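Need tokens for this chain, all 124 residues.
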Amino acid sequence: MLNFDFCPDLPVVRPAAGRYLAASVTLLAGVYVQGDRDFAKEIMRRGYVPRSKVDDYLVDSEARRKQGLPLVHVADWMAERGLITGDQRRIAEDAIPATWIARVKDTLTPIGWAGDSIAIYEVK
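Here are the structure tokens for all 124 residues:
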């Protein structure tokens, strides 16, 4: 059960195969999830990188923004510099809602709708 709106004190848990996920179209669009921030927190929590490397990413991102360059996702930035492995990236991404909600949206078709704004998926 995803508890973003109604139970913010409960942890967000990825639905297991055979379970259902009901998500608003705004959630599916990424409005309530913070992929970069959550990814950075997860790789620090797991001890993959120290806070100083996340700070380096933020400095680089600010410089890119000022130069009018496109921003780079923190996972790509860390991987390009060899700070995390592909396996570490997958483990961290699988732990954050932004990634698995995007995967549900991109790979599954809703099995139904609650009204016109809540998509219901059966997780496989």
